[in-house]
């Protein structure tokens, strides 16, 4: 995922500022994700990114599984943060969770058959009560 994140972040905005890799969130407690416009970059602007689907995932650069929808459509150019509450039933205590932002309209400039994506760093969720499927593990 780190290689995927580095490759994608070279082409896309938003630049994610929270959570970071050292973040640990408690499930069932309100949490905030934040992003900013990536400056000095050939990346599409937040205005280009437009409405986005935002969700919690696990996985790697080849296969990602959505576990919790945070927002079905948030305009990344008008909003720079969202508050949500992690659902403790989506998995185990783990440092393998990440937030993915998927543009609803913008395509990846290097692979126009795919939507533009941005990834937050993997971070930890604690207080979890669920399990992972074999595929999610």
Automatic annotation (TrEMBL):
Entries under InterPro entries matching the protein: Kre9/Knh1 (IPR045328), Kre9/Knh1-like_N (IPR018466)
Coiled-coil stretches noted in the UniProt entry, renumbered to this chain: none
GO biological process, one term: (1->6)-beta-D-glucan biosynthetic process
Domain of life: Eukaryota
Alphabetical UniProt keywords: Signal
Location of the Yeast cell wall synthesis Kre9/Knh1-like N-terminal domain: 18-107
Xref: Pfam families: Kre9_KNH
Keyword Transport on entry: no
Keyword presence, tRNA processing: no
Protein name in the entry: Yeast cell wall synthesis Kre9/Knh1-like N-terminal domain-containing protein
Lineage, highest ranks first: Eukaryota, Fungi, Dikarya, Basidiomycota, Agaricomycotina
């Amino acid at each position: 995922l780190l290689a995927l994140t580095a490759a994608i972040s070279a082409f896309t905005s938003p630049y994610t500022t929270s959570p970071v890799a050292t973040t640990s969130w408690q499930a069932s407690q309100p949490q905030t994700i934040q992003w900013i416009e990536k400056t000095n970059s050939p990346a599409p602007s937040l205005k280009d990114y437009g409405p986005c689907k935002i969700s919690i995932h696990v996985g790697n650069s080849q296969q990602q599984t959505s576990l919790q929808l945070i927002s079905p459509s948030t305009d990344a150019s008008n909003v720079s943060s969202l508050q949500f509450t992690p659902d403790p039933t989506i998995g185990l205590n783990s440092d393998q969770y990440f937030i993915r932002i998927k543009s609803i309209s913008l395509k990846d400039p290097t692979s126009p058959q795919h939507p533009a994506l941005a990834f937050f760093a993997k971070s930890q969720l604690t207080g979890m009560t669920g399990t992972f499927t074999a595929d999610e593990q």
